[in-house]
Amino acid sequence: GRSNSEGYDLNRCWEQPPAGSEVSWAKAVLEELCSSSNGVLAFVDLHAHSRRHGAFTLSNPGTEALPDLMKTSGGPLFDRRQCSFSCTGAKRSSARCVVWRDLGVTHAHTLEATYAAFASRERLVAPQDLEELGCNLVKSCALLP
C-alpha cells in the first residue's frame, strides 16, 4: 500500500500531517519554497495506477493547462480523456489538493500511469514509454503560463 511504517496513508494526510512524518517534512519544504521570491510553478505527484490503462492526471478545478499541454506533447501513453478536475471528499487531503488550495500552487496535479497497457490496449507499456512520458511532462511544465 501507500502507508508508511506508522500506518498513515501518505497521500491522504496532507491537511494535518503527523508530526515527524515524511509528509510533514515534504510539506514544510514546499511551504518554504512557495514563500520564496521565485515561488513554485508546478507540483506533480507521480503515482502508478492499478485499475486504469494509460496515463492521465487527477487535477484540481480550473487547472486544465498542464493536461492540455500533455495532450499535444505527452506521447501516446497520455490519455487526456481520462483526466478529471475535482478536489472533494477523500481527495481533499491529498497532496495535490492541499498544495493547490492551501499553498497556492496553480498547477498541482497527480499524474497516474499504468504499468500494464496503453488506454487503447494495443500493447503493454515498456520502460521507454514511461521515460518518454516523463520527458514530455517536463517539457509541458516548461510551457506553463
Key features of this structure:
31% helix, globular, single chain, alpha/beta
Low-pLDDT segments: none
Strand content: 15-25%
Q: How big is the Rg?
A: 15 Å
Gap between N and C termini, in Å?
35 Å
H/E topology pattern: HEEHEHEH
Which percent bin holds the helix content? 25-40%
Kindly report the oligomeric state of this protein: single chain
Beta strand count: 4
Number of helices: 4
The secondary-structure class comes to alpha/beta
Mean pLDDT score: 94
Order of strands across the widest beta sheet? 1-4-2-3
Inertia-based shape: globular
What kind of sheet is the major sheet? 4 strands, mixed
Topology:
Blueprint: H1 22-34, E1 42-49, E2 55-59, H2 65-73, E3 84-85, H3 95-101, E4 107-114, H4 127-142
Parallel strand pairs: 1-4, 2-3
Antiparallel strand pairs: 2-4
Characterization of the model:
- With about 140 residues, the protein is α/β, with parallel strands linked by helices.
- Helix content is about 30%, strand content about 15%.
- The protein is built from four helices and four strands.
- The protein has helices spanning about 20-35, 65-75, 95-100, 125-140; strands at about 40-50, 55-60, 85, 105-115.
- It has a four-stranded mixed β-sheet with strand order 1-4-2-3, sandwiched between helices.
- Helix 2 crosses helix 4.
- The chain is globular, with a radius of gyration of 15 Å.
Brief sketch in words of this structure:
The protein is α/β, with parallel strands linked by helices and 145 residues long. It has 4 helices and 4 strands. It has helices at residues 22-34, 65-73, 95-101, 127-142, and strands spanning 42-49, 55-59, 84-85, 107-114.
